[in-house]
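SAMPLE LOG
Freezer: B-3
Tube label: C17
Construct: single chain, 109 aa
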Amino acid sequence: MQQQPPYKRVAGCRVAGSVPQALSRCLQVEDAGRFSCTARNDAGTDQRRFTLSVHIPPTINESTYIEQKAVVEGQSISLECPAEGLPEPNLRWEREGQTLTFLTNPNLR
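STRUCTURE (predicted):
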């Protein structure tokens, strides 16, 4: 059984293997796409294809986030959670430790 190569740090990235055996760089969203690797020698050729997706972890935009709000009884309020990420993050709201469910928009209204 072949051991996995040890990881090494390259400009803040964790990369396994060595070029050209492993494509190594810090990936950005624009690096997503279809890739192929072709191995060729006097005995023949082999090729593998794959699709690479680059995800972005979710973050909540703190510049528009308000931690405390107040409302007069009987009035409505809009609570928003400005989350971003790729793929788009799912939002889960809780009140007093109990998960809330919504029929439409996950921003509480």
